[in-house]
Amino acid sequence: MRNSFKWIGMMAALMTGLTSPVWAQTDPTGSRDSGQVTDEETTPMPTAAPEPESEAVPSPEPGSEDLPETPAAEPSELQSLLSEGQFLLNSKKYDAALDLYDRAVDLDGDNVDARIGRGMSLAALQRYDEAIAELNRAVELRPQYSLAWLSRGTILKDTDRNEAALESFDRALAGDGSWGENRAADAHINRGSVLWRLDRREDALDAFDRAIALDDQFALAWYNKGTALLQEGRYEEAIVAYDRALASQGDWGLTTGPASAWYNRGVALELLERYEEAIESYDRALRITPNHTKARQQLANLRDRLDL
């Protein structure tokens, strides 16, 4: 069974009032997420949510139906350590996960997935330099492994080493296409976030569009695109992107969700002086997240201005 890691990366905006959006950094743990526009603003960062990768069951060969079944092989000690470490990392038991990955590396120091798991555990514990060293070793061992480069990029992104992170995401996309539980779309959305930080805004929008081209139901990609367009003052386009995010059936990440899209959509509508629609959007955000402080404040301010 292949050890695999799930990373979902993104970008989010915290809209302060109507004119001065502020970008926030997410919690740098193994549950890095998509960012949410709430009273506890967090910005999207990819998240390590490792799950065992299921293996396909081959169809029986013709004439093999009457053959006795071959007993399933017992997992090796290394496979067991990787699987259990993955579960513990997903459960946010980072110290315990690190202990298992340490043992896996002791058994086989050239096992790339053990190195990735150890790096992700160290990153979750905010031991970033050690984490990056592990991922450096992983890409040395398997230079074309897309998952290793993606994982390295997310840690570099977490620590604001943006140029190095961008290079890693580029290497991931040029690699062997082995993503574990991830996808090329996840690399594109992470790449877009880094490009935005580097003030390469059109390139960032292009990266979000590439993620959408690979998965037009990727809610977070639409959300990120909408937020970037909102920051650029392209309010009509931002509303279209938020509407697509809200209509999609895809991944929002761990904390970004429809409430964030409804709130930012309301901001765009208010800036376009479409006040009744803005009020409706803020209301929708509050129905989903009643403690959405900014939506509540914005709604109250708007109603006061309109004397409603």
Please report the distance between the alpha carbons of the first and last residues: 61 Å
The number of helical elements comes to 13
User: SSE order, as H and E?
Assistant: EEHHHHHHHHHHHHH
Q: Which CATH architecture?
A: Alpha Horseshoe
Sheet having the most strands: 2 strands, antiparallel
* Name given to the CATH homologous superfamily: Tetratricopeptide repeat domain
Q: In which range does the helix fraction lie?
A: 55-70%
Query: Which structural class best describes the helix and strand composition?
Result: mainly alpha
Rounded mean pLDDT is: 80
Strand order of the largest sheet: 1-2
Estimate what percentage of residues fall within beta strands.
under 5%
CATH fold group: Serine Threonine Protein Phosphatase 5, Tetratricopeptide repeat
Low-confidence stretches: 7-68
Number of domains: 1
Number of strands: 2
CATH class group: Mainly Alpha
State Rg.
Answer: 22 Å
Which of globular, elongated, flat, extended, rod-shaped describes the shape? elongated
